[in-house]
Amino acid sequence: MENKSGFTPKGDLILLLPPPVEEKTAGGIVLPKSSQDREAAATRMGTVVAMGDFAVEMSEGRLEGVKVGDNVLFPRYRGDALPVNKVTYLIMRGREVLGPITETPDYMIGAAKSSLEAFGVNQPEFA
């Protein structure tokens, strides 16, 4: 995966690309911006775009074997947003990542219509 963000993480930082948030439903209904923001905040998975030199060493073993292009899971509300050319990347420390996802269902990678579909749970704080 090519890093098109213009940001190169240093030290124990990693750069992630979360899956896109849908702007329309399958039926063509445009979702309000507030709903899109809630879905983006609920995203807990991302693809590693770039890693600092010490990200694996300082991640308490959570990034062991993880390389650029792999999918990882992280807690909600982690990382700092880096919007570049209408794409929002996340910058976070390697130790904030929970671990790699090796058997990712297809619907979790860009095809999920909501956090409910992606993670199989209802998130009442976003309702």
Question: What do these coordinates show?
Answer:
- This protein is α+β, with helices and mostly antiparallel strands and 127 residues long.
- It has one domain (13-104): 10 Kd Chaperonin, Protein Cpn10, Chain O (Roll), CATH 2.30.33.40.
- The chain has helices at 33-42, 115-119, and strands at 13-17, 45-51, 71-73, 80-84, 87-93, 99-100.
- The chain has a six-stranded antiparallel sheet, with no helix packed on it.
- The longest helix is centred in the first third of the chain and has 10 residues, at 33-42.
- 22% of the residues are buried.
Keyword list:
alpha+beta, 10 Kd Chaperonin, Protein Cpn10, Chain O, 127 residues, disordered C terminus, 2 helices, six-stranded antiparallel sheet, single chain, 12% helix
- Helical content, roughly? 10-25%
The Cα radius of gyration reads: 15 Å
What's the architecture, going by CATH?
Roll
- Please give the count of helices: 2
On the 0-100 scale, what is the average pLDDT? 77
Strand order of the largest sheet: 4-5-1-2-3-6
Structural class: alpha+beta
Q: State the CATH topology.
A: 10 Kd Chaperonin, Protein Cpn10, Chain O
Shape: globular
Number of domains: 1
* End-to-end C-alpha gap: 34 Å
Number of strands: 6
Content of β-strand:
15-25%
